[in-house]
Here is the input.
Amino acid sequence: MFQPVKIAPSILSADFMNLERDIAMIEQAGAGYVHVDVMDGHFVPNLTIGVPHVKQLKHITSLPLDVHLMISNPLVQLPWFLEAGADMVTVHIEALEGQWADRAVEAIHEAGAQACVALKPNTPADVLSSTIGKLDMVLIMSVEPGFSGQGYIEGSEDKVAQVVSMAREAGNDGMLIEVDGGIGLKTVERVCAAGADVIVCGNAVYAAEDPAAALAEIEALGNKARLAALA
Ligand code: DX5
Ligand code: ZN
Here is the structure.
């Protein structure tokens, strides 16, 4: 059955001095989530925003907050982000050894939020084999995490297709796949054709002359590709 793609604009590319305006703009344009990139200067070289910002964001938008934790100690900070109102929380598998990914997923679910695990470009999809059945979403990075405005890593759509079949084999048909990094008009079709459900867009939306029009155009192309793949 056809399910429309959802666009999750990353506020990392928004104007932080006018964040309320920039979030209202994507809300009116039909965004599905607000993508919040949390970086700790350790797991990735860059440093961005954290728990207090998520708490404040919760007051200014009714869109679900899709919080992407690029941090080395997700189990320590997880309860704080959940308390702050994160709706979907993404932890990186590379930051969680052994059974800790399962612990993170449990903590997210206990708080009533949705759980997502992210894979860096060089992390193979099969590291998810024991966890995939419990996940609400998998995030596939199509750039090295850390910065917005990078180019899409060719072939990332192959990992999307692989995760689609892994979720199906695990009987987790409702699981979503999000793709993050370098997605815009030129790349959205190939990831949506491969099975991506949620598209993170930083620069492709916020650096566009008309962000609302860019969002609508990317969404339309993504939906066209999803429909064509179903046929
Ligand atoms: C990168 C972040 C992305 C990024 C997306 O580490 O996770 O969300 O800001 O920006 P674009 O779409 O410009 O690549
Ligand atoms: Zn992100």
Q: What stands out?
A: The helical segments are 19-28, 51-60, 74-84, 100-110, 156-169, 188-194, 203-206, 211-230.
